[in-house]
Amino acid sequence: MVDEKITLNVEDFWKRTNKLLRDRGYTQNSLSLECGFTENRITNWASKKTLPNVFEAYEMATRLGVTLDYFITGDEDSKTRTVKKQIKDLLHQLERNL
Question: Which terminus of the chain is less hemmed in, N or C, by CB atoms within 10 Å?
Answer without folding.
Answer: N
